[in-house]
Design goal:
Elements lengths: L20 E3 L5 E4 L8 E5 L5 E6 L9 E6 L6 E5 L9 E5 L4 E6 L6 E6 L5 E6 L10 E6 L5 E7 L7 E4 L5 E5 L6 E5 L5 E5 L7 E4 L5 E5 L5 E6 L5 E7 L17
């Protein structure tokens, strides 16, 4: 391809966005999380891509790092997850993108929550993270979100130590997770109560994303191949294509997500 990336704008310290970013449903606001503070930032974004009017959320009141952020498409709700200092600390917190208010916290069972995705309608989210220090061992789980953005716990699963990838299909029928137990890429039903499909992608802890029609899944790991999977009505993942030789990001950086 002859397409080239052109930098349009940057804002302040990169540490404000070192661990994730997400757009509002209309694309007019950019939300970022990072290691600089225990809050998230919000920018206005013009149609030409330039950013302005940075504001900050209220403090989450934690010293832990915000590891990831996600925002629903059709409901005014977002969610962040944390690098927890202990099993008693909260692992997730909802917020309202429109007025930037903080809503509800939730204690996940995982010791550190590494990534999160939220359904398009904002009624549930799924997290992945390191195994809990107490039984039952779990590394991924569903969080139900009420009409007032209050979080409650749902079904949990163990998919191996410190998985990174999680992606809810846009049609909200399935959830893809990328753990490192036996290298499996797993597909669960939306309730996270039943395993539907599992395949060995050939590498551990892949990042994942679905296409808009929930018919294809892309998996990626830094330094490894980018793979395209077909997902059909028979609930079977089929590898369709693979790209190798992609550049590896140095150990001082991280490439932990992918999007379409």
């Amino acid at each position: 391809s002859n397409d080239a990336l052109t930098e349009v704008d940057d804002q302040e310290s990169s540490l404000r966005a070192s661990y994730g970013c997400a757009y509002s449903s209309d694309g007019s606001k950019l939300f970022t999380s990072g290691t600089l503070t225990n809050e998230i930032s919000r920018f206005d974004q013009a149609t030409n891509g330039t950013l302005s009017n940075r504001t900050s959320s209220a403090s989450f009141g934690l010293s832990e790092r915000i590891n990831a952020i996600a925002i629903a498409k059709t409901k005014d709700v977002g969610i962040v997850v944390f690098n927890k200092g202990s099993s008693a600390s909260i692992g997730a917190h909802t917020f309202t993108p429109s007025d930037f208010s903080l809503d509800s916290s939730f204690v996940t069972r995982t010791e550190e929550v590494l990534n999160v995705d939220i359904s398009q309608d904002g009624t549930f989210a799924v997290y992945v993270g390191k195994d809990a220090v107490s039984a039952p061992v779990t590394s991924t789980g569903r969080m139900n979100i009420s009409s007032t953005n209050v979080i409650s716990g749902g079904n949990e699963q163990n998919i191996g130590s410190a998985p990174n990838g999680v992606a809810i299909a846009p049609n909200q029928n399935h959830v893809a997770t990328g753990g490192n137990s036996s290298n499996w890429l797993r597909i669960y039903n939306a309730a996270m109560s039943s395993l539907v499909e599992e395949v060995n992608p050939g590498f551990t802890k892949p990042s994942l994303c679905w296409d808009s029609e929930s018919e294809y899944l892309v998996s990626f790991i830094d330094g490894g191949p980018l793979k395209l999977w077909g997902w059909n009505g028979s609930n079977t993942l089929t590898e369709l294509d693979s790209i190798t030789g992609l550049p590896s990001i140095t150990a001082t950086h991280r490439m932990a997500s992918i999007t379409i």
